[in-house]
Specification:
single chain, 572 residues, alpha+beta, six-stranded mixed β-sheet, six-stranded antiparallel β-sheet, 17 helices, 32 strands, 34% helix, 23% strand
Amino acid sequence: MIRKAETTISIAGRGEAHAHLLVFVGDRSFRHALDGATCTIGRAADCNLQIDDASVSRRHAVVRLGSSGASIEDLGSHNGTRVNGATIHDATPVVGGDLISIGEATCLLQLPARPWSGELDLHILSRLESELDRARRYDRRVAILLWTIDAPLEGVVPLIAPLVRRCDAVGALRDHELLGVFPELDLDEATTIAERGLESIRPITGARVGIAAYPQDGRDATSLLDAARDALAGAERIGRAEAAIQHLAVGESSILVADRVMARTYELVRKLARSELPTLVVGETGTGKELVARALHEWSTRASSPFVAVNCAALPESLVESELFGHKRGAFTGADRDRAGLFEAASGGTLFFDEIGELPLSAQAKLLRAVETRTVTRIGEPMPIAVDVRFVAATNRDLAAEVAAGRFRQDLFYRLGAALVTLPPLRERPRDLVALARAFLSRACGRLGIAPLRLSEATLRALSAHAFPGNIRELGNTIEYAAAVVAGDADRDAHETTIEPWHLPSSNVAGADPGAGSGFRMRSIAEEVEELERRRMSEALAAASGNQSRAAEIIGMPRRTFVTKLGKYGLR
């Protein structure tokens, strides 16, 4: 037995508004209005929301509404209460869009948007940190708007107040700089607010807005603000962080850079390219160390001369000397001709030692002498040959630790590491991750000969949550796999243009089904709810003969949200 009600309540003295739970039990779903300050959920007959299911305790949980917002508390239930998948124990704040699990039942909390008080938050950065903490805990979204306004902020605030909800926060960062924190808004919804805000303050000249969102543009306050400022730098009116991407020309190729830490890294690379300093590039496997080495060469005065790469891990110890320095005909069995080594081949240009940490100790001593003297001696040849090369080396090892352990020569370490470039892993470069994923997807669609695909917001969150130990190389393989899955799906709707989380390889994405051997991937509750929301919106539009306002009213969704999500779901 499930008892439900449809009523209207007053929240925090703000007038009549609808607050409800969208409840899913088995194959049924319905809307339960929250008809007071508290709503007790359980099997008992006196509960406001009664769910007769063995997984639900008699008095399972209670939802409370108050002037400071909504919260839920578990009442000592047997199976526990979860918010966005995380088990709660004490009273836990919740906002509209949060998923509450009561035993086997799932409730989607829907709260009305309440007007903002118009008071600037004096602790706006602390508020941003707290919202980001909530987003990390419960896999939610947060958007920020950074306004620069050539006018006193006191006169601007009343103009944008109608666009700001009670759950949002707005505060001054500096003179003429206003920060808005918007929980549960995606980038498209945040862009709509930015556009309407600029329209509201149209008489004020010089106003611009930079938009960034968690997690794709940053996972902490500093990186999000950096992303919003980068978005502002290239915007006439409204800039989104995802659009603030650099394409650095490296010879006939280009390097895509979105994250600020990588932009600074390549600024350093450009400066080092002008010098002759031996340079050591350090980073995990797949972070793009060879791209840095090529940039050091292409941006230098040696660009017209050879770039020679040596994979030290693939050099047999017995052939190191011959490969690097060359040999004279007859120097050893099989030496049927004179052969120049890689040092001579790179003369005038750059010699790149990839995975230098894998070079055997015996070979390190010979390499050190060649680096120090800038001469090589072919095997079987008495006279040394002068070589003019720039040395660049790369490793994924901690060479200082290797030196301490006696596995790498200290003198060679200092010779090759006169300058150091450190590449952060992809998991610390969220904007690069998203930009690269989209670039890889475009390239994969071209190779497969299919119409362009896009990455859904849920997929971007799934990718951002994964550690990517294989870094850029692993990301590229992941996107190639997903595109191939969609292209090869015989049952796919011809108009389907979106990569969803269940298209990703389960072994590569955090939160995917661990039973990956079968290829089975379970969809998350959030994705199921999004599918239901899309279906209900489509049904409402049909019932309202295409009238958007009426359709939004039918399913109890604010019109602004309804219109924004029409675009998100591709509805007409």
